[in-house]
Design brief:
Chain lengths: 508, 280
Amino acid sequence: MKRFFSLFIVAIIFISSLSFGGCSPTTSDTKVIRVCNCEDYIDETLFDEFTQETGIEVQYSTYGTNENLYNELVINPNSYDLVVPSEYMIEKLAIEGRIQKLDFSRLLDYKANVSDYINTRLENLKFTVEKGKYEGQQASLSEYMVGYMWGTMGWVYSTDELTVEDVNSWYSPFENSSLAKRITIKDAVRDSYIVGIAMAYEQELKNVSDNASITAILNNVETEAIKKVGEKLQSLKPMLYGFEVDSGKNDIINNRIDAYVAWSGDAAYAIDVACGDAEDEDGNIVDTIRNLSYYIPDEGSNIWFDGFVMPSGSNNYDAVYEFLEFISRPDSVYRNMNYTGYTSMVAKGDFNTPIESESGDTLSNLFDAIVLDWFDESDDMDPETDYEVIDLSYFFGNDRNYTVTVSAESKGRLIAQYPTLEMLERCAIMQNFNNEALRQINDMWEVVKGETFPTWALILFAVLVFVIGATVVVYRNKEKIKWHKNLVYKKTALEKKGYRIIKIEEIE
Amino acid sequence: MTKENNALPLANGGKIRFRIGFNRKQLCIPYGVFLACFVIVPLFLIVFYAFTDENGAITIENFIRFFTTPTTLTTVIISILIALATTVICILLAYPVAYILANSKLGKGGTLLMLFIAPMWINFVLRAMAMKDLLTLIGVFGLNNYVNVIIGMVYDYMPFMILPIYSVLIKMDKSLIEASQDLGASPLKTFVKVTFPLSMPGIASGITMVFMPVMTCYVISDTFGNGLITIIGKLIDEQFTTFQNWNMGSAMAMVLLIIMLVSMWVTGGFKSEDTRGTNL
């Protein structure tokens, strides 16, 4: 008993040292910042430069999904100084008082450089805080986050087989019999829910044109809507190649599918690799494998944002604000965009060190370096091709001309990074599902993902269980069975000889 | 004190030259602590979550929901069927391999065995993806998702079946086979009456090492089934991550635990006392 007790004490000491010693709070003067981000979502060489510049060391870690990050923050609110969740998770964290508001008077460069359009969208997303320091207050997303990347969701499709008309709505690829088993959708309930609801309420969506109404329809989580979405998603299954979260880009490049629901950054990556603009590991330009393009269906889609937020347990303010200003500088933004393929929320400002393009031009800001240098085709127009002038001033500002001329072929690649204003106005932010809705959506999703069970399988299963159970029982009792058989054999032998058996007794 | 005096005599019969300041029981403390922290405490947490709702009130609602939802039950049955098929195919393929390995000269040195075990050293997600591309190349992939998943599972768990059977076969007393041959049994009869029954413990531990992991290994079912096949491991994962319902997830984990205990009862029937060392 005494030994058990001491073991217990040792266990308690061990556990407590784990929970307190392992995550000792970092005070401001230790000059360390703990950042947690999605995998492969930042150019990590920037950290060294940040350390050189400020003397603050970056402790970098990654998380798998928003929900995993949430679990970590629930268990220890001071596990990180900065985390990068998506907008719905930021909303959930803010409502539950798990993150703190940022002081934007210390983020002047970010405020000056962030795209006004995107920031307004974030300001418009309002909610009431339920717990913590700001309990009962109205707040908006923009008070909590420093924007990182943003994007949309749409169809990536092969232009060798399909045209824009084939993917101009969420449902139209499913009406095309040549696409049977050649489509994938997301194996993530939030993303598939928005696809399902856009299909189920296609007509209602087409009748409205303002963003508020579209957002309301796409965020409908009433019982009836959930039921409709479930039915709709289930009806897609015979046409589906499968559900995926990150194999879709490889599947479409390798010609296993012709269309898939993609996040815009993945779309840009897939198009680059398949169309041969990307470099392989040795730095060679890869040959064109397939011609892919990206389109955001007309009835509307999802717009998402990822941003830096500060967990309520952290008080490492100086390091946090220095890091946020550093990471939002156009120079860092350019490198992160090059690295990840996603689009930053930072739009304005000049580079500290201008970049030289391949043709020798000096590029001094993000629009020149990313949009004009990559996409603009006004210099070498081919008279036989159609060109389109796309105005991106809604995103970059009104201080100069922000238009770009692209051919119809490369328009898909541009809108994967910079959609037109018209498209964005039809994109809604998906809000956080409340608990009741989440439970119903859970049930719906289980039914969608689950298999309907054929009778033969049930019979087979029962037979198998019986056979295995019987085998085990027989095997376990085989000695007894042998003994019994022997006895019966002897008994009949004796009876044949004319003996009459009165009593059988077991003798030790 | 008496225990320490009874320590095993050294081979040279001399005195113990140095003493480590622990007795045997104390040497178990590190593992005891490990066991308490990472096995027993989490197990209690699972039981706690399984029988409570989100507000912490005691309830069996989770289990009722689990056993009254047709899709979850179907998922459990599908998982069991996939696991059974994988286990049977693994036994059929692994037994001859293990037999050959145990009886060849190269196999005794472990060289051949290494060749069979080597794929295990490569990250298994990577292996799964490579296998998928390979199957596409051959043209087998995409015919039937269940077949794909079972191919993937068999591919991934084969070494776990080969090893225990091999280690039983290689330790087997060859004089028993000679005796059987001396007494006039044909090679087939020798195998059926001597070799096979003696290798049962290896098969049994192979089954425990293949059957249970397959039911939860949703990386394979996602990669090879294109996300169209859900097994119980995936359901549990979704409860913990996507739906934030730890209680339901724990209840499912407990059901899985019960299935595991049943499967151990089943395989336990084939084990004899000399199963030591057959587990990995």
